[in-house]
């Protein structure tokens, strides 16, 4: 099964530094570190190399770099590539909850609904490679106080992760201190063809539930022909 997607969010930018695996996202030396070790595979379990892995997150206080009025360069983000084994890795900070902006219509709506504005902590990922369906998703630490009440409904069970710790073997291999918190996750990408077929299948089933006998051609519903 392919990895589920979720919301892109408003804090993605196009100026993230292109970096090698092992890159440290944040400049704050006192922030609690999180080593992120991921793999990318296809539906058959084969590694997918040379995937463009765009990653970004807020800082240890829950703020993204673009929220800093004095921002003069990107921080908390990078563009990496998976290696020949489909692996990519970087050092982030342990994600923390943060409030979404409340000074516009979204804030007014949440107030009317008597809902809080706090998103659970998370790290964003956008994985792209020609021939594969682009994956936009995020990973959320289990046990976050807002895990079940995300105001933008971005959390999915398959995207909730348990943190481990870096052991001696990983420390030696990736030059990361023993005891650092560890996020280990395996992403699964669908090919463009597989994604088109799945979308067509699900669209047709949805139309049938509405009593409509239609086929899906080039992503659009057309009258079924015997």
Compact summary:
The chain is of the alpha+beta class and 226 residues long.
- Major sheet: order of its strands? 3-2-7-8-9
> How many E-type strands?
13
The CATH class label of the largest domain is: Mainly Beta
Would you identify the CATH H-level superfamily of the largest domain? Aromatic compound dioxygenase
What structural category do the secondary elements indicate? Answer: alpha+beta
- Strand proportion, as a percent range, falls in 25-35%
Radius of gyration: 20 Å
Gross morphology = globular
> How many alpha or pi helices?
3
Q: Tell me about the largest β-sheet.
A: 5 strands, mixed
Reading the helices and strands in chain order gives EEEEEHEEEEEHEHEE
Instruction: Give the CA-CA distance, first to last residue.
Output: 32 Å
GO molecular function, one term: ferric iron binding
InterPro entries: Intradiol_dOase_C, Intradiol_dOase_core, Intradiol_RC_Dioxygenase
Keywords: Dioxygenase, Oxidoreductase
Protein name: Intradiol ring-cleavage dioxygenases domain-containing protein
Question: Overview of this structure, please?
Answer:
With 226 residues, this protein is α+β, with helices and mostly antiparallel strands. The chain folds into two domains: 33-190, Protocatechuate 3,4-Dioxygenase, subunit A, CATH 2.60.130.10; 191-226, no CATH class. It is 15% helix and 28% strand. The protein has three helices and 13 strands, in the order βββββαβββββαβαββ. The chain has helices spanning 105-113, 168-174, 192-209, and strands spanning 33-41, 52-56, 77-81, 87-93, 98-99, 118-119, 123-128, 135-141, 160-161, 164-165, 181-188, 214-217, 220-223. The strands form four sheets. The protein has a five-stranded mixed sheet with strand order 3-2-7-8-9, with no helix packed on it. Strands 4-1-11-10 form a four-stranded mixed sheet, with no helix packed on it. Strands 5-6 form a two-stranded antiparallel ribbon. A hairpin with a 6-residue loop joins strand 7 and strand 8 (135-141). The radius of gyration is 20 Å and the shape is globular. The model has no long low-confidence stretch (mean pLDDT 94). Belongs to the intradiol ring-cleavage dioxygenase family.
